[in-house]
Q: What sequence folds into this?
């Protein structure tokens, strides 16, 4: 978007790709290469008597541990479950630090309770390592991303308290949102989901979201059709109307259409373009809404969550803790070269 853009995040973004901690990198370096090409086996050597020498048996395949369930309350008390090699010792890590242990049963299923102490307020990256005697430890490809809310913050206007945001993210590709940060969750109707709505300083709007791959999504602003998009193979869609919107309150309508043009899912959401003073230089501005965090903002606007440190550095005067930002804050988004 243009320099000096004003950005309004309408819903928490769930597109996330985690940064490996140093400990996880060390652990993964010891993981057997599952996709390595197998070299052709050498021909058996014959003994003087003509009998072939017995070949060494290939080591059994070791399962990579994975997550099936992640339930984390607003107080940080967690129940995590998944699968691993039967009988393996399972260690749960939070950012590389061990916080709990369990053992996989005969079916390879495991459950860990991380409740004493609970997870603290802020963002957490949870992985598991399986230990089998006589073998190298194996770290999960998946990561559970959790953002525990500050229970001291006031409830919403409806009286609802914020919940813990929980996602299970693979090593590549889109993560799965398993627990939204509020009872209402993200804006959704059927398979139609809206992730973000933003606009630049000229009022040009961009809306993104998810739907069934190959589906058509049509957008309306104030009951006037403004854009149409077809979802990609990953279900992502993006609408960018050519005409800007004025400084005022508006109504956005999204329709997911069938092949014959009939809507089968619809979302209607109010939004407001507000005048905000232009940021200095090439920065943009963002108005924080409930459910936002620096990692997701950086992921949505820079393409990678690791740039959250740049946002924090540009807004130190109003962000005391990078894990805690509040609705209504106006943050500067510096330009990334």
A:
């Amino acid at each position: 978007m243009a320099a000096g853009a004003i950005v309004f995040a309408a819903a928490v973004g769930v597109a996330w790709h985690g940064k490996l901690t140093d400990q996880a990198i060390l652990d993964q370096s010891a993981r057997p290469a599952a996709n390595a090409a197998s070299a052709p086996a050498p021909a058996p050597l014959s003994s003087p008597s003509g009998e072939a020498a017995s070949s060494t048996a290939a080591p059994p395949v070791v399962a990579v541990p994975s997550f099936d369930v992640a339930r984390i309350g607003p107080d940080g008390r967690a129940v995590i479950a998944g699968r691993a090699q039967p009988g393996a010792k399972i260690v749960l890590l939070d950012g590389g630090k061990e916080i709990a242990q369990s053992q996989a049963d005969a079916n390879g299923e495991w459950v860990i309770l991380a409740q004493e102490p609970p997870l603290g307020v802020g963002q957490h990256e949870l992985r598991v390592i399986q230990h089998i005697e006589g073998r190298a430890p194996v770290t999960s490809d998946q990561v559970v991303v959790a953002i525990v809310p500050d229970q001291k913050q006031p409830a919403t206007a409806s009286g609802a308290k914020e919940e813990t945001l929980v996602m299970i993210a693979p090593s590549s590709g889109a993560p799965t949102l398993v627990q939204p940060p509020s009872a209402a969750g993200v804006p959704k109707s059927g398979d139609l989901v809206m992730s973000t709505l933003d606009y630049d300083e000229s009022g040009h709007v961009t809306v993104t979201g998810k739907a069934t791959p190959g589906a058509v999504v049509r957008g309306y602003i104030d009951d006037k059709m403004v854009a149409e998009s077809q979802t990609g193979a990953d279900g992502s869609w993006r609408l960018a109307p050519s005409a800007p919107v004025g400084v005022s309150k508006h109504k956005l309508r999204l329709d997911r259409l069938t092949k014959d043009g009939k809507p089968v899912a619809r979302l209607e959401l109010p939004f407001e373009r507000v005048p905000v003073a232009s940021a200095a230089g090439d920065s943009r501005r963002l108005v924080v809404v409930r459910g936002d965090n620096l990692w997701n903002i950086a992921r949505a606007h820079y393409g990678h969550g690791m740039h959250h440190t740049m946002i924090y550095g540009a807004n130190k005067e109003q962000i005391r803790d990078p894990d805690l930002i509040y609705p209504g804050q106006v943050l500067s988004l510096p330009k990334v070269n």
User: Anything to note?
Assistant: The first strand starts at residue 6 and ends at 8.
